[in-house]
Structures are given as structure tokens and as C-alpha cells.
Amino acid sequence: MSGTETSQALMSGQLPKERGAGLVSVAADLVRLVAKQKKLSGSSFDACQNLKDALDRFQVAILSPTTSVEARKLLLAEFQQQVLALFETLSVREKELKAAITKYTKSGENCFDPQISQLCNVQPLEKTLLERAIGEHLYREGHFDIADSFARESGQSFEDTYRLPFRDLYAILNDIRHGTLEPAILWTQRVSSWIERSSDSQDGASESSAAQRMQDSTYIPHSATPSVPTNAGRQALAEKLRELEFKLHRLRFVNYLQERRLPEALAYARQHFARFQRSQTKEIQQLMGCFAFVSRIAKSPYASFFTSALSDDAEQSFRRCFWAHLDLSEESPLYSVVACGTIALPVLMRATRLLATRESWTQREELPVEIDLGKKYKYHSIFVCPVSREQSTPTNPPYLLPCGHVLCKETVNRLPRGNTRFKCPYCPSEQQVAACRQINF
Description:
Elements: H1 3-12, H2 14-63, H3 69-111, H4 127-140, H5 144-154, H6 160-177, H7 182-198, H8 207-215, H9 231-258, H10 262-272, H11 281-289, H12 308-325, H13 333-354, E1 398-400, E2 406-408, H14 409-414, E3 421-423, E4 430-432, E5 437-438
Antiparallel strand pairs: 1-2, 1-5, 3-4
Helix pairs in contact: 2-3, 4-5, 6-12, 7-9, 9-10, 9-12
């Protein structure tokens, strides 16, 4: 395979799909193997049970004083034949299962590369950091008993200010799942009020409101002073919260209809839907139309409102808003790293085989082939100044030069050396510091 063909094969994504198809095939073989094992196990158990029943009858007959010697010999020979037949049956079934296991093992070995450990020539992971990541993942997934045990065994310490908000999250999610919506609505309204207060000033929330957030267990402090979202962040979160609150009120309204509590449903709609008339006009009209089909809602145009999907949607929206309020991603860092590695690993393995050089890709400045992680794992850009080799920060943001090149602020201020003009490090044109503009990715 030529270099061009190799690149095209790697970039097309066909190779990872082949590996994915192999994994699907192995998984299907495993399902069939488990089904076969259960079937053989069940039939073997029945055969053994039948032999036990025959043994009980044989013992009764052989010990009976009315049974003659000749009859006992015949009974013994008959029982011996049953034992030999069972032994033959079990031997055949054992061979059949063993052959299926051997076939599955070979297909698994062909699918998984035994040299995977040689793909990455890196130092072992820092044990303390890895244990911390595992503990955080367990807490974020709601496995609190396991997380507490893991923390004790690993010696990791997780403060209450870190753990308690997750307990609140899963307690409220459980309430939503069981139709108790008041805690979720109260949380949504409380956070919305905090955002409105923080928007009144450029500094955001006051010390008292920040303390209130921590007291209400709705915020995870990453530092001694809780950070306040930017104006854009506040607006985005406020919009999510407004949408979430409507979904919760919608779910409560539908619950009233399902319980045939029509007066309560109408009163609830009048009380809570008015604030959403401009943004949710069409859906509110559809919800009001449900009154005409209460007796035959399953066959009505609004049957979709009366499925579990409505509760699932509210639950997922609440989860996203909760993570956004805590300034955390929806998935734990450990999950994201493993997921990205799972996507990238087949491509890198095939690239290692096909590339002419045997040099480890970890020793290069860039990957040997582009890896598409999908939209889900595309995060905000991180700018690295090509001159100072430093990542941009809020105090050292990227600046766009008139010539089109981008440098960090500190580099732009350092290049003039007391003059008002300086030469761009990457082209012959001269620049003025005053003409450079901060940019945001």
C-alpha cells in the first residue's frame, strides 16, 4: 500500500469501521455462546434430575423383599444403561460447548490486537491522580457507597462541598422519575433568581449570594472564591433554566390530566403557563387541546405527551442544567478520556502498522493521522502562542495582528521593545500595537 493509499484509508474511517464490525461480530458470538450455555445447562440439569428420580425408584425396588434376584439383576442392568446414556449425553454436550468456547476465543483473539500495549510508549499514570479521577467519576455517576469505600481504601479525601451537590442531583432526579416535581422546580427557580441578581452588576454575585449557593449545596467551589459565569454564560444558563422550568410545569400538568384531575390541571396551567406564552405558544396550545381528548388520549393527536419520554426529557434537561450551574461538563473527565481513547485507538493501531517508519507516534509533535472524535468531543479551542509557546489565559489572551497572524498579548507587548512598531515574526509586514485586537475563539 502506497503512502497516499494509506492516508486515504486512514482518513476515510473505513479501518476503524472494520474493527468496529469485528467487535459487533464478537459481541454477537458471545450472546449466542451464552444462550447455548444456558440451553445445554438446562437440558443437562433435567437429565441429571431424571437420573436421580430413576435412582430413587431403583432403590425402592431393589430393597423391596418381594423383588426376586433375577428382577434385581434386570433392574441393575437397566439403571446401568441409564447412567451410561447420561454420561454419553453429558460428554457430547461438553464437547459441543467446548467447541463453541474455542471458536469464540479465536474470534476474540483475531479482533483484539495482542500488541496493544506496545502502541503507546509513555510513562505510567500518576497513581494519586488516577485514583482521584476514578473517585470523582464514581461520585458524579451517583455510586456513592462505592465511591466512599474507594475513597477510604485509596486514601483520597473528598470534601462535603464536593460530594453533597451530587447527592442533591440524584435525589432530585429520583423525585422527577417518581413524579415529585417540587424539588426540581424549586431548584430551578432558586438558580434563576441567583442569575438575575448576579446580572445586576459586572462583578456578578456578592459574597452573601456565593455563600448562599454553597449553603444550598448547589455549587461546587473549585477555589476559595466561587467563580461567576460570564454574561454570555449567564444568558445561556438562564435560557436553559427557563426551558427546564417549562418542561417541569408541562410534566406536572400532564400528570394532572392522567389522574383525571381536570380542575387542578386548568388552574395549574393558568398559574404557570402565562410566563411562557411568547416562547412556548404552540406547545401550550397543544397542551390545552388535551382537554378535549381526556377520555381517549391514547388515540388523540397529543398521545406523545402521555409517554415516559416526557419525564425522560425533563430528567435529562435538569441534569444538563445542574452540570452547567456547577460549571462542569456533562460527562466526567475519566469517561471522556476513555471514550476518546476508544475512538482513537483503532486508527492509531492501524496507522502504526501501515506507516513506513517504526518510530512511536508518541515521539512526534503531532499525530500521524487526523482522528475524528465527532461533534460530541469537540471542545472550545485552546490557543498556544507560536512565539512564547504558552497557552492563552484570561490575563494573556490571543491578539490578532493586522497582517492576520495571532500572538498572545504578552508577546505583542514584548516585541516592540520600547517602539510603537514591530515586525511580525511570521511575515515581513510591520505592525502597530494599537492596531492589534483581542480575539475570542
